Protein 1
Amino acid sequence: MKINKDPLNDALRLLKTRLRSEWELRYRLKEKGYSDEEIQKVIDTLKSKNFIDDKRFAYLYAYDSLTLKKKGPIKIRYELHNLKVDGWNIEEGLKKALEEVDIKPIIENILKKSEPKKFREVLYRHGFEYDSIAKEAIEKITNERGDEEWN
């Protein structure tokens, strides 16, 4: 057990590696043995300094998940929900990220490695819907491949 426990330093150490949701930070501090009062004081301090902001967290999580991890909106929404981010913040963050990111090339990249008969399954597994954007991506890939059985 630590002799000099400092919940603020532990919270800052956690935030140093990546942004976290308020719930996630509370959970991690609770795991370290801090009381609810200590945790609330740290949360209030970090919120006042804009180190914790679930709306910004949701946007950055969605943006990184789309661009770096190639996850679709369904999967991102699910993961943010599991991190206890408020539904409104999830929708706002996802909406903003989707306005900035063109998902068609992401879908095309994911599908290029797949068999045509598994396109829908692959889309769903990555968290994308089978919508007009996905249909356009599928059409482009099948035309590029030039194989009649895939058109």
Note: Residues 98 and 112 are 22 Å apart (CA to CA).
Protein 2
Amino acid sequence: MLTSVAGRPVEGRGYSQLKNMELGYLNSVRKQFEYYKSVGEKTFDQLDEGDFFWQFNEESNSIAIIVNHLSGNMKSRWTDFLTSDGEKEWRNRDSEFESVIRSKEELLIKWNDGWKCLFEALDSINLENFKTKIFIRNQGHSIVEAVNRQFAHYSYHIGQIVYIGRMLKGNAWKSLTIPKGESANFNTVKFSKGKHDGHFSDDLK
């Protein structure tokens, strides 16, 4: 059980507030990861097999290459998240940017394996180990810093996936969030509910 912060005892109301903040953070960041995972998958659902391997030029990354990189990063960062450096000795980062994925089926396996590793690691974090220092390339991070670092990285690459998908589908693209021209209607529905809790993505699924 967490009993101190910065060497000072934590108990009573202060401890309860801190506990709620930590649990609230873990719940919120998991929802955020789930949201961006769904954004990627909604893009995949609109693509033909060949779309996953399209490259603007030789120096640009296809969706398949981006997924290969995401999977490699996730497996390295989140395997033994609390106990080993996030840059594993067995990782070959350079190979993640090569065209090694050959089919949509293989792509989805890598995608799901990476996310499975991530969510299992998130589930291993609790109040007892929340103050564990996480190392990435020998640089120390708090758990919040390490998790936020990966969240920003993944949302950046998933944004790339969406952008490529939208370019490829053109007028056939189906909006993943609020459709163009529907912002006013969406806001009307949201505000009609009054003050309420929940996650912003609940209304975008």
Note: The mean pLDDT is 90.
Protein 3
Amino acid sequence: MKEKNNISSESIQIYESPIGPLSVTANERAITGISFGMAKREAEPSKITQAAVKQLKEYFSGQRKVFDLQLEPAGTKFQKKVWEALSEIPYGETVSYRQIAEKINCPKGFRAVGMANNKNPIAIVVPCHRVIGTDGSLTGYAGGLSVKESLLQLELSNKPTGQ
């Protein structure tokens, strides 16, 4: 049996967004991460990272409300279930950790939902910024609360009328 080469063909692209640099990473099939700040390692961009950056630019200009990208976030089965639920939160709307817990049939697991939200490797595209406290307060965010507030304000100001 032939051994597989363990060298991954990862691509990385830095996007200087209106909220600061975002590192977009991908494997040969899909986006694997969008994180705040500069990547700790270097790799060439790819068509996949370029497509993600294009869609992020459209998002920040108010033209894109839904992302159309292949995603492969690394995480546990539970985390992936939470991230899938996050992806269903409509543009310009917010939900609580408790609502996400109920949606995934784990009504008492809102703290676990919060921890999974905290581990979301694909910021903005998997919209963990749309999750708020039950009392409506802004809660922790990897990019900082001011970034979370900026993203929510961007979406509110570009939300289609009638929604």
Note: DSSP finds five helices and five strands in the chain.
